[in-house]
Amino acid sequence: MDDRLDQDRSSASMQLFSKRLKVSAGTFRHGRGEQVVGPMKRGLKVVVMLQGHQSYELDDRPPLTINSPMLLVAANDGDHVQKRTCLSGEGVRCAIVQLDADFAQDELGASFSGLMGQMQGSGIGPGLWARAAGADLRGIALQMAECRIEGAMRNLYMAGKALELAATVVDQIVNERPQRAARLSPRTIEQLRAAHALLLQSARNPPTLGELARNTGLNVTKLTAGFRQLYGASVFDYLQAHRLQQAYDLIRSGEKSVTEAAYHVGYNPAHFSGIFRRRFGVLPSALR
């Protein structure tokens, strides 16, 4: 992710701890196909993408597709060039925490050589680490993106949340066993993208895994393993995140009531609030 993002009134950027900690959170505007190229700062960057789709490239490495909800971490102790390409015209809702190398070392005890060594096992490349964003990370990021505290206490609140997010992510990286994913063939990638498109087209009444596999020429095992590798989440988790994000936007914009939004995305209203709260950390009624 690049630091230069167009902001709207629901986003905020700030530099804290003598500019050694930078925080950006909220909804950011961009246009489809827009590219931003620039140097990557030395240090540790944590990005939790709550909404939006982007392509991210570091130096000459293959591009990494970021499909929300997703976590991207970069540990950088050298000079690198990054490029961000917007893949959709919708706003990007995210939380970004950038810690200078010395600050991360002092405050988190983060050894950058150790972190980068841990990230190499992910198959993504040295210094980069990407995973589906879990409920704990999404909750922290959403609290940052939706912060309603104003005045002098806003900086204190955001600094605390930024450190909480960074500490949670570093702990996750350090304690995960490195996994080397098998390379996907171009044909398999094409089939998985077809499965992804079919899944979103029928999100309100989705096919079973068996039906999705048969319709795209895959078996269930190859579908589930490949989908997680390509999109950073299981088929079920990805579908749930997509449906709940649609509901979130409908409720927050005032376009639909909580009950109407639940039905619109295919959920029973009796169970919707609990699922919504686990995903976003707040009840849907709190958005109105």
Class from helix and strand fractions: alpha+beta
Average pLDDT reading: 80
Q: Please report which band the strand proportion falls in: under 5%, 5-15%, 15-25%, 25-35%, 35-45% or over 45%.
A: 15-25%
Shape: globular
**C-alpha-based Rg, rounded:** 19 Å
Terminal residue distance: 31 Å
Task: Characterize the main sheet.
Answer: 7 strands, antiparallel
**Oligomer category:** single chain
- Residues in helices, as a percent range: 40-55%
Number of helices: 10
Number of strands: 11
Low-confidence spans: 1-9, 121-126
Please write the string of helix (H) and strand (E) elements: EEEEEEEEEEHHEHHHHHHHH
Key phrases:
24% strand; globular; 288 residues; single chain; 43% helix; 7-stranded antiparallel β-sheet; 4-stranded antiparallel β-sheet
Characterise the protein shown here.
The chain is α+β, with helices and mostly antiparallel strands. Helix content is 43%, strand content 24%. The protein has ten helices and eleven strands. The chain has helices at 101-108, 112-120, 135-145, 152-175, 186-201, 209-216, 220-231, 235-252, 258-264, 269-280, and strands at 6-7, 12-16, 21-29, 35-40, 43-51, 53-58, 64-67, 70-76, 80-86, 92-100, 128-132. Strands 1, 2, 3, 5, 8, 10 and 11 form a seven-stranded antiparallel β-sheet that branches. The protein has a four-stranded antiparallel β-sheet with strand order 4-9-6-7, with no helix packed on it. A hairpin with a 5-residue loop joins β6 and β7. α5 packs across α6 and α6 crosses α7. The two termini are 31 Å apart.
